[in-house]
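Sample pair:
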Amino acid sequence: MYRLGFLLCDRPLDHLAARFGDYPRMFRQAFDEVCEAFEWVVYDATDAELPLAVTECDGYLISGSRHGAYDPLPWIEPLSAFISDVATTAVPMVGLCFGHQLIGHTLGGKVVQSDKGWGIGINDYQIEQAESWMSPPLPRMTVPVCHQDQVTALPPAAKRIAGNAHCENFVVRFRDNMIGIQGHPEFPPEFLAELVEWRHDRLPDDVLATARASIKKPHHNREIKTWIANFLGLPQQA
């Protein structure tokens, strides 16, 4: 059976966890929509839990986090070292939001708190160059986002796949076996709506209004989860 290593980099706020469950549960429910049975192996990276060898799992998925890839937290450097190890192999790895940023940072790109401000809500991104794993194909992708940090300069050999004027490097193929997506296709719109309200006092009025209005937009969460499953080689529903 396929073993997916889930590298956990944060926990939801208590009131959100009570309603939506923790992140491992949220991710499991999200990928159950597109995948057949496989083994989830959870590593709490924030508690120094990491695979002893890259080959412990068939592929890896890195979660988002409220922290920054550049933060001097004791668990980030070991996780970064593990990403470097995976980069020298053919084992597939996908990073979402913080995971995307940390892959970029680790491989020599630049990650900063963007002067373009918050990306929050359900937003649209143009596909610049489709790849074989991006099936079903889409001309653009609409997905939940919640971030200030961005990958603003790509590491060597990386290729931009999708972006928009606010976040140019939204989807990136960092290596043949590594991609990053700045969005959160695992987030139900209801969860994102709660995050928007939790941050309402930190958001400019126009950003808050746009984010609130976006929650009911149709999105491509299912399609993007299928892309991730394709890239990782996860068993998929017929």
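The mean pLDDT is 96.
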